[in-house]
Specification:
Blueprint lengths: L2 H13 E4 L3 E4 L22 E8 L4 E8 L12 H14 L10 E7 L4 E5 L13 H10 L7 E8 L9 H8 L9 E5 L8 E4 H4 L11 H19 L10 H16 L11 E9 L2 E8 L12 H18 L4 E2 L6 E2 L3 E9 L4 E2 L3 H9 L6 E7 L11 E2 L3 E7 L9 H7 L2
Parallel strand pairs: 7-8, 14-16
Antiparallel strand pairs: 1-2, 2-6, 3-4, 5-6, 5-7, 8-9, 10-11, 10-14, 12-13, 14-15, 16-18, 17-18
Helix pairs in contact: 4-9, 8-9
Length: 419
Amino acid sequence: MNEDRKAVLAAACLFATSVSFGILVIASFAPPDFPQNKSDPTSLQPSEEKDIQLTNGSQDVQNKQKIPSILSIGKKKIYDDTYYLKCAHQIRLSLAPPIQSNFRVVCILLLKNGSVIVGTNDECAPNIGGAICAERAALLFYRMQFTKQTIQKVYIVTDADAPIPPGTLCREYLYGHPATTPDTVIVMQSRDETFAPWIVKLKEMHPFPSLYSGLSAQQQVSVGQNHERLVEKLLAKFSIPGILFNDQVLRLVTAAHQAALADDRDVLHPIRYGAAMVVRHDDKIGYMQAPQLKALEYGSTQDAVCQLLGLYKAHCRDFRISGNTSRDSTTNTMQPPLQVLAIVQVDQFGIPHVPFAAARSMLVEHGFGNVQVILTVRLDENEEEHVDFHGDGTLSVESVAAKDLCPFLPDFCKERYGC
């Protein structure tokens, strides 16, 4: 291994640091407002341009190119996208793949003043649900910088053959973070540095954000209380043409509200959630409901919609065991014994809320993409497409297909898993 490559790997190792719960992140280079101790060998100073070796992921060959070293990334100078993508690839190639997915992701957060923070994904065995994403790892280290700098761009590189967007958890986390805006730019690239990056805005990745996005617990309670009566009036005249009449919508919301009241561990968080779905079997209509289950460790909480989907799967299994199944005469495939018509998640104020990140993924990845989801949307006065919906100029009750909550699903998920 040549000396330049050794220098890059050594730098990446020095930047690695651990935070609570064993989450691995890569420290920001020369954090703003933090004086560096020159006598400390782990305190790295920005360097000038020098030759470094970069790996072309598609050809697995090394090409020497003169670009600023990753050590100079802490300077308050903003480079073009190519620079940060190359830096991200250098870090990615220096890391061992996580032990479960064998798939590396590196995220660079570019702050408004030109400084950066870097994170990578990590996993432990055997619970894949405890994995940490690169974007959230970087945001955790942002918190430790005691800075109020806004995030100007998010750069993401992976081991995939095509650019991969953030997952729903990271989209939701980024959207609700105080350092981002809906217009924060996300730049993604495949493992091949010669391929053009994919660039989108955060609001395109995470449509229909929660009414409570970015609010404190008490602010959420206040918003819920203030809008309870308005949403009740909107629901009184809401229907889903061709799918649900108004009385069926009201029964669905009532079922979800009853489930929300069972989410009673208010000492952990004051907002309660419940979910319900309308199902049809033959000519009969039924309703299923499930509450959120709060956990002391917030990340272990089971959201209401995911709970509901598990309940639905169990009922379908019972129907199949009893022989209550049907076959589509056109496709000659077995059809679900219970057809899901619509889903809603509400809080204790009866306000319909968009499903959370995990539920968005589950709905799309497990065959519920065409199911209608009822939600409340905060209207932008400049968005004329909302004028035909039930609203008062501030809020609107709408229904959207679940797949529209999770755009830009990676092609490999569609091909391999039928998402």
